[in-house]
Amino acid sequence: MDKKEKRNKSEKKSELNTKTTELKNSKLKTPRKNSSNSLDSKSSKNSIKDISKENKKLEKSNSDYFSDTKLSSFPLNSKLIETLNSLGYITATKIQSESIPQALESKDVIGQAKTGSGKSLAFLIPAAQLILTTKIKEGILVLIITPTRELAIQLYDLTKDILIDNGNLCTLVIGGGNRKKESEKISSSNMKIVIATPGRLLDHMENTKNFNYSNLKMLIIDEADKILKIGFEEELKQIINKIPKDRQTLLFSATITPKVEDLITLSIKNYENIRIKTSNDDPTVSSLEQGYIKITADKKFLFLFTFIKKNLNRKIIIFFSTCKEVEFFSNLLNYVDVPVLSISGDYKQQKRSTTFIEFCSLEKGVLLCTDVAQRGLDIPDIDWVIQYDPPHDPEEYLHRVGRTARGANKIGKALLMILPNEIGFIRLLQLYKIKIEEFEFPENKLAKIQEQFEKLVNKKDHYLLNLATEAYRAYLHAYNTNNDKDNFNIEKLDLIKLCKSFGLLSPPFVHLNIKFSTNSSRRKNNRKREEFLNYKRNKINNESSNNNDNRQFIM
Description:
Number of strands: 18
CATH superfamily of the largest domain: P-loop containing nucleotide triphosphate hydrolases
Mean pLDDT: 82
Number of domains: 3
Number of helices: 22
Radius of gyration: 25 Å
């Protein structure tokens, strides 16, 4: 692939010059019914009325975020209080003010609060207090379980900051890491805190001989709903069965789902249930402005490209539904000199960690990602969260938009891109009390690059063509697995327009597997659906000479 790029270097430069000239002259402006429905950040920034409105939002958000309690008022180790204050943690958030006193009394705690509410310190402070005051010398005392590697790394760094001189008492156990080094560290008699993802932790419990957790005093389960949602229910049950019963358990989650309730029943008998309510009890913070645009598939990339070019001085996260899409669009944008970073589950752990740390340190930039970045990650100063592909459900939506407007004095904006056939999902979000308004944009202001886009992708033997084809197929497979068939029905997709969003000239062949349920009515519905798609495919093939629609579905 590198040789091909070198051979086409001069061709690429001339092509990029043409694009850059046209794209620089293309600006996205939004005609507004009112200022809240605008995508034009410049006009909003320069408006005194909007600044006043933002200040009110911040005041309201801060009153929902902070309590009247100082961290120094808690019965904590003096060095711990000094360290917290030096890190800028002076006043406790509401979830911290209510949960920390209970945890310090060795009570079990169930904590529920919005994303970005300070849940991490709500359990890390009691954990640090235990380590700094304990007289137990042997074995692991605190076990912290979290859903993703990136969140585990972030918690690990924060724990080391809090412990300072005792940072060597904490270690990280995650998939993709060096298992031998992990074994050595968790087997050390000095190690007291293990921060882990469920799969790798269970592996060590079963196979690392000197992993001593017999003296475990505190089990912490962070983002419990996400751990269960991504399929770690069985691993979590096995872990809980292996650790001592005589322990303290702290469980934190943004939502308490039926599966979380089952986990609570399994792991905790008597507990303090702490749920933080805000002034209006909306599921998102008041300093977050949320909107959506209704857009046809063939205009999606044009809109995204125009938006990025207009907001190069902002810090933006863009969510896609598949790893293949992230790979394709990151390669494409970087190829045309629009620098972006990317994270997905397909990347090796070293690359994921390096990219995450790099993006956190940036003042401005763009990160393309899958939902691997939607949970718990505290990335500083995100201006925009763009959902290029809709989430599967409102819960995922909340965690995606929760990457911005995190903490006190922070504002943020979130934008959801919806196809016309998906508009029912907006009504579903509104049923969840999510305040989301329609943003308008003029199509004539979008970058006019579709022709160059298609020429670039469809060059003979060009690697982007393979990436685009794989991304298109992955998108359809992901779309087909969405259980919300009312709002995300693959039969309603316009595949001609969809393939244009990947720069393809015609829809590639896609094989979709539909498994029949044992339920007879479900089997009947699936057969009808299969017959319908076969009918559409045959009709399309018969008319392909007239409309160039070569889409194919094989069930």
